[in-house]
Amino acid sequence: MAAERAQEPRTHLSPRLQRLGEITAVAALVLAGAATVPRLVCGRDADAFWQSDPRVQEPLAAEVAAYVRAGVGPESFSTGDPRFDGEWALVTHQMAALGLGQLILQHPELRATYLPVVALCAERLLAPETTAFGRAAWGEDALRAPATPNGHAYLGYANLALSMLTLLDPTHPLAGTNDRLTEAFARRLAAAPHGMLETYPGEAYPADMAAVVGSIGLHDRARRETHREGLLRDATAALTARYLHRPSGMFHQRVDAHAGAPLGPPRASGTAIAAYFLSFADQDLARRVFAGIASHQRARFLGFGGVREYPDGEAGLGDIDSGPVLFGVSVSATGFSLAGARLTGERAMFVDLFRTAELFGLTGRGPAGGRRFLSGGPLGNALLLAMMTAGPAAAPLPPAPGRLP
Amino acid sequence: MSPMSPTSPTSAPSAPNPTSAPNPTSAPSAPSAPNPTSPRRARAPWHVRVLAAAAILLALHVALAFALDTLGLVESLLSPSGLRALAVLPLVLGLYAVRLALLFVMPGLVFAALVSAGRTWRARRAHRAQARQTPVPRA
Fold first, then answer.
1. What percentage of chain A carries pLDDT values higher than 70?
2. What is the value of pTM for the model shown?
3. Do B65 and A16 touch (CB under 8 A)?
4. Is the pLDDT of residue A69 over 70?
5. Chain A 186-225, CB below 8 Å of chain B: which residues?
6. How far apart are CA A277 and CA B49, in angstroms?
7. In this structure, are residues A272 and A339 in contact, taking their beta carbons and an 8 Å threshold?
8. With contact defined as beta carbons under 8 Å apart, do A321 and A264 qualify?
9. Residue A365 phi/psi, 5° resolution?
10. Beta bridge partners of residue A307, listed in sequence order
11. A393 Cβ contact list (under 8 Å, min separation 6)
12. Distances in Å between the alpha carbon of A356 and those of A11, A268, A338?
């Protein structure tokens, strides 16, 4: 009887109903496929990156190293503004040095391969052509005149990479430059009335200040110095008290260093990268800062994650800091938050963000035989290497048990 | 056209219609051709078209990714020369459209197409088996 009934229903259905059923079945299959296949395909390496597996980290590192060896400079970028071209070259080398440095700290057997590349990044960061945009803005060379009272906070990016080199190789010739630059920043920071150094005349950014603070913290860890702990505590306290927007838990993107007041809305791109930089000086603070993004700014769809650039009630377009903003989600904030997710043990968030990076980054084989993000270029690949290898290895405090990668 | 009906007249007009088989693929489709005697170009079954489209999209995706990697996607988009950015923008949009379709739409469609192909194959096999069992009247 059961077999007969199984054969009957279709023959009793009208062709129109049967067709409707078939279309519904196809639609359901398409939806089921959309909900499962992309997240599996794009997330296939997420766990390996989360666990700092060198089998996935090293191919990306090889491509980033190849970019650095091939030569990246302001002329490699065409943003249309010499300052941005210079900034991008600076950040490319900084992120390459941090990413490769973190890789060496996690896998010491790779030291011989990548330490020379970290040193090459440090040399390029101090090259006159790399810092020309800062000299043009201030009309002075802060590397040759460290006693200047001007902020030059853009050099915090270079000093953070130098501190990483000092941590890896305290006897490197450039470690002395790191010592001098750190001392100069500490002196300016102590004199800053509102705990903020200007990046350019009349321009100050908490993210750049976080790079300065992180560079001092990492330097002192490398040199085993503790006499600046109080200064760092005061600096981070001023940063969070004055420039952290309490309701959203995010930093204002731009501030007035002279008045100690925020300018413009809080934004996720600056906050996410600031949390990463701060982790080199105070990992607990970095976690607290990133918690604002993790709890308020997350966007999720079909297993893919993003980070909204603006808090609720605010809106804006993308700029050079955030990259394109699509449906409120910022490219930069999403990429930078990979580091925050690792630092705070937010595995689910890391996997979601990784899938998005994979979806739009398109990994493919690179000329060095490794794997790279085809849409990333030198800057995007260096950034993602640094963000996806961020972790407690380079941070001053031990990880919380059981949560961190 | 009924997408899951592998033996619909529009999809496979020359295919045998195994109406006596227990397989539910035997439902007739709506009369889409007003004059069945007029000559019509035979279209491939829908599952064949879906699988072909998936293969084409895959090839297109590889080609576009290679092209954009060669041209330098980020550098082109940021180029102050509007011409370079304009030239690369359609490629970028095309690549992401193809990639999203490949990842989000095609897996389910391909699965449905494979199921449909399997049902067609089973229906034809059952029809042939039945035809073999039917005694052929001798002249």
1. 93
2. 0.83
3. no
4. yes
5. none
6. 52
7. yes
8. no
9. -70, 135
10. A298
11. A102, A105, A106
12. 46, 17, 11
> CA B117 to CA B123: how far, in whole Å?
10
pLDDT tens digit string along A205-246?
999 999 999 999 999 999 998 889 999 999 999 999 999 999
Q: Which positions in chain A touch B103 (Cβ < 8 Å)?
A: 37-38, 41-42, 359
Q: What's the whole-number mean pLDDT along residues A182-193?
A: 94
Q: Which contiguous run of DSSP H or E holds residue A361?
A: helix A347-361
Residues A310, A312, A315, A316, Cα dihedral to 10°: 0
Look up residue A231 and give its two tokens: 């200064």
| Burial category of A72 from C-beta neighbours within 10 Å (exposed 0-12, middle 13-18, buried 19 and up) | buried
From CA B26, how far away is CA B18, in angstroms rounded? 6
Rounded distance, CA A114 to CA A101, Å?
Answer: 8
**What pLDDT does residue B84 have?**
65
Residue whose pair of structure tokens reads 């961190």 in the numeric block: A404
Average pLDDT over residues B39-62: 86
Nearest Cα to A177, choosing from A197, A167, A162, A157? A162
Q: Given CB atoms, is A24 within the 8 Å cutoff of chain B?
A: no
Query: Which amino acid type is present at position A148?
Result: T
Structural Rg of chain A based on CA atoms: 24
Handedness of CA A240, A243, A246, A247 (dihedral sign): negative
| Interface contact A320, partner B, CB < 8 A | no
Bigger pLDDT: A67 vs A324: A67
- Binned at pLDDT 50, 70 and 90, residue B23 comes out as very low
A8-22, A144-158, A360-374: the lowest-pLDDT one: A8-22
Q: Is A374 on the interface with B (CB under 8 A)?
A: yes
Per-residue confidence (pLDDT) for residue A223, from 0 to 100: 92
CATH number, domain A16-394, options 1.10.150, 3.90.1200, 1.50.10, 1.20.120: 1.50.10
Query: Residue B70: how many CB atoms within 10 A of its CB?
Result: 9
The CA distance from A205 to the nearest CA of chain B, in Å, is 23
Greatest C-alpha distance within chain B: 85
Q: Which two tokens stand for residue A196?
A: 């903020």
Q: Of the given ranges (A19-23, A80-84, A315-319, B32-36), which has the lowest mean pLDDT? A: B32-36
pLDDT at site A367: 86
